[in-house]
Design a protein that fits this description.
The chain is α+β, with helices and mostly antiparallel strands. The protein is built from seven helices and twelve strands. Strand 3 (about 110-120) and strand 4 form a beta hairpin. Bound molecules: D-MYO-inositol-1-phosphate (IPD) and calcium ion.
Length: about 270
């Protein structure tokens, strides 16, 4: 599933990128229109701190309907369970609101994330932050952009001055382990940021607003589009063992910082927290 694979038609990749971007922008407008109706009572998922809203569900339905209206043979994997088996070789990976906690509290860092995978390779992706009208997109071997302008990650090569984004899971055990990793990391870097949307964290690496991002325990929908956007902006995006990023672990940074940070995180057993 590596986005470094080649050999796919540039025009198909462009079509998928354009469609992902258009639908993500429209879904962003939908969730903005629904924000004032947010009602938190009783709406949790994997734990009591993992919130879900009517807007998450409405956004996913909207995205799936619009993808299938144009590409009825494609498959879909959606955070809110909207899974569709396809026959075309294209599968869409959808996070209808990444950063739902921010959405509920009206903190601007939430996004819509849509990626397209072709024969198991992520080839196109879009992440939209509706509050700031920021539109990030990428196509495999076609670069990454923010509002149409090319993106590149920072050339940072030292830990001491690196600004690093991360995120935390939803279970108490995982959070305790992630906090322990931070006690090793924080004294050795410039600072840590926890924005609250993994998709936007990866876009922040892509456009150089942070030097790196890591997290244990994402889901594919949190990761897929941002992974391609960061990679197409020149970042190395991988786990701590030299493999593709996965729900187990993702680290994204410019190539010169990557090895230093990987060794530090590996020493802190960051991919072994529960
Ligand atoms: C979460 C966000 C958060 C990350 C969590 C994700 P959600 O997604 O991306 O930044 O730390 O691991 O689960 O629940 O807001 O869609
Ligand atoms: Ca998410």
């Amino acid at each position: 599933m590596t986005p470094s694979s080649a050999g796919t038609s540039p025009s198909l990749i462009n079509d998928l990128r354009v469609l992902a971007t258009r639908i993500a922008v429209d879904a962003g407008e939908l969730i903005e229109a629904m924000r004032d109706e947010v009602d938190l009572s009783g709406m949790t998922k994997s734990s009591s701190v993992d919130v879900v809203t009517a807007a998450d569900k409405a956004s996913e339905v909207f995205i799936i309907e619009h993808i299938l209206a144009e590409r009825p043979d494609d498959g879909i994997l959606g955070e809110e369970g909207g899974d569709v088996i396809g026959t075309s070789g294209v599968r869409w990976i959808v996070d209808p609101i990444d950063g739902t906690t921010n959405y509920v509290y009206d903190i601007p860092a939430y996004s819509v994330s849509i990626a397209a995978e072709l024969d198991g390779v992520i080839v196109a992706g879009a992440v939209v932050e509706p509050k700031s009208n920021s539109v990030y997109d990428a196509g495999l071997n076609a670069g990454a952009r923010k509002n149409g302008e090319p993106l590149s990650c920072t050339p940072k090569a030292e830990l001491e001055t690196a600004l690093i984004a991360t995120g935390f899971g939803y279970t108490a055990d995982r959070r305790a382990g992630q906090a322990a990793v931070l006690t090793t990391l924080l004294p050795q870097v410039r600072d840590i940021r926890r924005f609250g949307s993994a998709a936007l964290d990866l876009c922040a690496v892509a456009d150089g607003r942070v030097d790196a991002y890591y997290e244990k325990g994402l889901n594919l929908w949190d990761l897929a589009a941002g992974w391609l956007i960061a990679a197409e902006a020149g970042a190395t995006v991988a786990d701590l063992r030299g493999g593709d990023p996965s729900p187990e672990f993702v680290l994204a940074s410019g190539p010169d910082l990557f090895g230093l940070l990987r060794d530090l995180l590996d020493g802190a057993k960051a991919d072994q927290v529960p």
